[in-house]
Amino acid sequence: MNRIPVGVIRGVCDYGDRRKNKNWQPYAAAMAASYGRALLDEIPSSDRTVDLTKKAYEPCYYIPFARNTRFTGRATILNSIEDRFFGPDQSQKMALVGLGGVGKTQIALRFAYQMKEKRPDYSIFWVPVLSDETAERAYADIAKKLRLQKSSEDEDVKDLVCQHLSSDEAGKWLLIVDNADDQELIFGSDEKSGLEEYLPQSEDGIILLTTRSGQVAGQFAQCDMIDIKQMDQEEAATLLKKSLVQKQLLHDETSVIELLTYLSFLPLAITQAAAYLNQTRAPIRTYLSLLRNAEDNDTRVLEREFRDNTRYKGSQNAIGTTWIVSFRQIQKSNQLAVDLLSFISCIEPKAIPQSMLPDAEADELEWAIGTLCSYSFLVRREESNVFDMHSLVHTATRGWLDKQDRKRQVSKDAIRHLAARFPTKDDAHYDLRRGYLPHAMRLLSRNHEDRTVETYQLFEKVGDSFNSDRRFKEAVKCYEEVCWWRQRLDPETDHIRLASEHALASAYLNDRRIKDAIKMLEHVVAVRKETLDEKDYDRLASEQVLASTYLNDRRIKHAIEMHEYVVAVRKETLDEKDYDRLASELELARAYVSDRRIKDAIEMLEHVVAVRTETLDEKDHLRLESEHELARAYVSDRRIKDAIEMLEHVVAVRKETLDEKDYDRLASEQVLASTYLTDRRIKHAIEMHEYVVAVRKETLDEKDYDRLASELELAKAYVSDRRIKDAINMLEHVVAVQKEASDEEDHLRLASEQALAKAYLRDRRIKDAIEIFEHVVAVRKEILDKKDHFRLTSEHELARAYLDDRRIKDAIEIFEHVVAVRKEILDEKDHDRLTSEHELARAYLVLQDCFESLEADYDDNDVRGIGS
């Protein structure tokens, strides 16, 4: 401040001095102004001001569509929306209701962009409700836009967004809920909550909903709804003008008015008509003539279907008459385009891959697709070879085929084509199956009467696809269809029937339906033993899968016996580097680990790894799989450093070669995290477990076995980090889901219950812990051998809980049993054996302390008695 030029001070003083000549004051003011900048330069900006600026609210936009440059008119409706939201009697919720194709979405979109321009302090969000998935995806995208983070792993993203927008910090916002046609999706049912539960409420927020259903509109907005009718004549004419390439057609004003009237001034119908005129270059009168000659019967069919879809009384058949003309014209000029249209009517109308369409010469196919696109029946997604069809066009096409009595034949042809086109596991382009899958499922779900050979071939391929993507429940449904068909068609010794039963049993195993898998596999193995040589490939494959299923059922001795047989036969018949021989040795080693024959397992796994290291590339899946299993065996042998070194290598390679959501990559990361935990590198373990859980939450169903397993492992890490409350919250969720989804004897469910009991014990909820431990022990006593590792572990944990509850004799009784069994089956240096011996010794010491305490009390009483 001491360095401010003196002229500033002089100028201010002269200006303020009333005794100065008034003619001088303008010069004084100029001097003060010219030097005022110096004062600002000398005064630093306030940090507080900067902080407030940073915290200032910034609007956020999530509008998935660009501005519609062809939008026209609708000013009355837009003004009405504006008035209801911001007029004297303000509403916070509104609904636009009307027939499909009347322009509800486009009106909402125009209002959104008007809001963005006129009210820049409003955030704008858009949620399409075509399905649960589209709404969920929109909420997730909005959360990302808002940079919202979940406070807990199991928090619903919809609830997260809802809470934020309901809070003051969200500022002002507009939420558009589009295509809310399904009443159950919006308002829920007895079994499931609807989207309405996640719609935010705030004095600063407004919601605009679009729907075809008057019921949805009334239930959502009561009287605050606008019934969207067709355009007026001026608006419709402007839309046609913007849509037509040949503007000279508009010179025939009489024909234009007749056309628009015939089309009922519906925007979609006008757009479709313009697309036809642009394609054919025909005059409007020609098109009008074609419209008038359309058959009434076809029109009535289309009108009926539209009314069913929209539940809207008084709907006109304008769109139907437009489309029927287009269908006829395409049929005259391009039969392939008609074939494509017919095929597409049987599949999903969205995300249609070009590679899935019926075969044709490349140029003919492109021309046919171009024809459909020119009528706006198909819309290409940007520059891709994926197309969408308007859902009403889709419905209209089916109605047209039904009227021609062609719908059943078209459906059969579509199934035949897709059964041949759907990729198999051996195809180089197998990844294309994911794009085909929704379409195949729609075909199959609607095919109840005409079940052909191709139908079941498609079921089988779809089942294989679900199986590859670890969607085992869906795979089971498909394989069951195939098995049911084969069992009715073929004798039980038929090779193909047995193969389908084998595939279904494997899917049962992956879906944790262990008993069903065993029942079917025992049948398959029995038949193949009768009909096939003991060295037959298929017989050995079924025996190996049955052995693995026994292992999952904790019938370890049965599993080992069968695995050893398979390995022995394959050693006799196959080279030591053969894939199947090594695979069977790997499975046997896994069984040895479960039987606590760790040394035998390691010896076999080291052999498998050595062979695969010699014969396979470092990045090969099979080599990495065997290294993964060897590392797990090292963990069981307490060779933690060796295990970590190998797992870090496997994880590093899989990170380099696999997608972050890949099952095998996540499996290795989970095992490495658990090994870090064993090595007391708790922070590393938690970080990796949290990552695995986050990815699996994003990609897997809440009841998925692997997702629950990863949540279990993370909870164990939380316990080790003394985050007991976090662990308990997660474990209670896991156990609750498993009680609903799995059998009482399920291995993972019992493991989760045991982990929850241990967490309760750490939280000093001893009674709760004992109750669960006793349940787990009781179940495992029923289903497992007394020497089983998991049964002994649960008995050991129950004894520890009894000891904490001062039930010392009960604890000692169980510890003595566990120690006796482990002495019989385990090496004297085994970690589990040593742990149980240590706990038994501790129990003896506690009991001794109790006796000594009692004796001391007794002696004190004697002394007091003598003294008295």
Automatic annotation (TrEMBL):
<dbReference type="GO" id="GO:0003824">
    <property type="term" value="F:catalytic activity"/>
</dbReference>
<dbReference type="InterPro" id="IPR002182">
    <property type="entry name" value="NB-ARC"/>
</dbReference>
<dbReference type="GO" id="GO:0043531">
    <property type="term" value="F:ADP binding"/>
</dbReference>
<dbReference type="Pfam" id="PF00931">
    <property type="entry name" value="NB-ARC"/>
</dbReference>
<dbReference type="InterPro" id="IPR053137">
    <property type="entry name" value="NLR-like"/>
</dbReference>
<dbReference type="Pfam" id="PF13424">
    <property type="entry name" value="TPR_12"/>
</dbReference>
<dbReference type="Pfam" id="PF13374">
    <property type="entry name" value="TPR_10"/>
</dbReference>
<dbReference type="InterPro" id="IPR027417">
    <property type="entry name" value="P-loop_NTPase"/>
</dbReference>
<feature type="domain" description="NB-ARC">
    <location>
        <begin position="78"/>
        <end position="248"/>
    </location>
</feature>
<protein>
    <recommendedName>
        <fullName>NB-ARC domain-containing protein</fullName>
    </recommendedName>
</protein>
<dbReference type="InterPro" id="IPR035994">
    <property type="entry name" value="Nucleoside_phosphorylase_sf"/>
</dbReference>
<dbReference type="InterPro" id="IPR011990">
    <property type="entry name" value="TPR-like_helical_dom_sf"/>
</dbReference>
<dbReference type="GO" id="GO:0009116">
    <property type="term" value="P:nucleoside metabolic process"/>
</dbReference>
